[in-house]
Design brief:
The chain is an alpha/beta fold. 26% of the residues lie in helices and 33% in strands. Bound molecules: S-adenosylmethionine.
Length: 219
């Protein structure tokens, strides 16, 4: 077996995606672990993570790097945030915002093992509750199952550096179940055009349905 690096700390091993484990021996959600040449890699399944699904579907713009500071909105129980934590490494930061207390209990356990992850129990609509902690970040990753997804991204854009990137999962079902997903994506992206350039758009099929994965750059 060989580990082929696709992006910083992201590898393909035996046809599967994996990240180099920042905390050796630490598993987050029962994922498979590969040990190769003294390094440990955690399998990153596209069925459990939309960022992994986007990479499998040919994502080209990958701005996450060693040392990036990431504002992660909708951290849930830490599955994808833990892989982002692997990617940004010891010198990076993953500010992990989640409003569900139930999910936060699991997320806290993940953050306890990973010094670069900071849990923030908060509503992503209330940026004043965490803006002092976050300051200005390099990247926003947003995956919130809320009706006001576009408004949430616009507000949080104030915490993104100029020309910083936003990775934005648009969940059409949370916005309007009665509308064609394509129409929802179009309206959402149009509403963001004054603040962001649209860099890339990807479907997440077959890993996930009724979601669009968009990469935006702050103007
Ligand atoms: C699809 S899950 C996120 C999964 C996670 N990104 C991953 O890949 O591991 C969506 C999460 O958004 C959270 N959420 C919804 N609205 C929110 C809000 N306004 N502020 C913060 N979190 C929110 C939900 O509680 C839920 O945990």
């Amino acid at each position: 077996m060989e580990a082929k690096e696709l992006f910083p700390n992201v590898y393909k091993i035996d046809g599967r995606l994996a990240t180099k484990n920042l905390v050796k021996g630490n598993r987050v959600y029962g994922e498979q672990v590969f040990n190769l040449n003294g390094a440990e890699y955690r399998s990153w399944t596209p069925y459990r993570s939309k960022l992994s699904a986007a990479i499998m579907n040919g994502l080209k713009t990958f701005e996450f790097d060693n040392g990036s500071s990431v504002l992660y909105l909708g951290a849930a129980n830490g599955t994808t945030p833990s892989h982002v934590s692997d990617i940004v490494g010891k010198t990076g930061k993953v500010y992990s915002v989640e409003m569900s207390k139930r999910s936060m209990r699991d997320l806290l356990e993940v953050c306890e093992e990973r010094a670069n992850m900071l849990p923030i129990l908060s509503d992503a609509r209330d940026i004043d509750s965490y803006s002092d902690i976050v300051g200005k970040c390099d990247i926003i990753y947003q995956d919130v199952s809320a009706r006001e997804q576009a408004e949430i991204l616009k507000k949080n854009g104030a915490l993104l550096k100029k020309n910083g990137y936003a990775y934005f999962v648009i969940k059409s079902q949370s916005i309007d179940v009665s509308k064609e997903p394509k129409l929802v994506y179009k309206e959402v992206l149009e509403s963001l055009e004054d603040a962001f350039d649209i860099v890339e758009k990807l479907s997440l099929e077959p890993y996930d349905t009724a979601h669009m994965f968009a990469v935006l750059r702050k103007k």
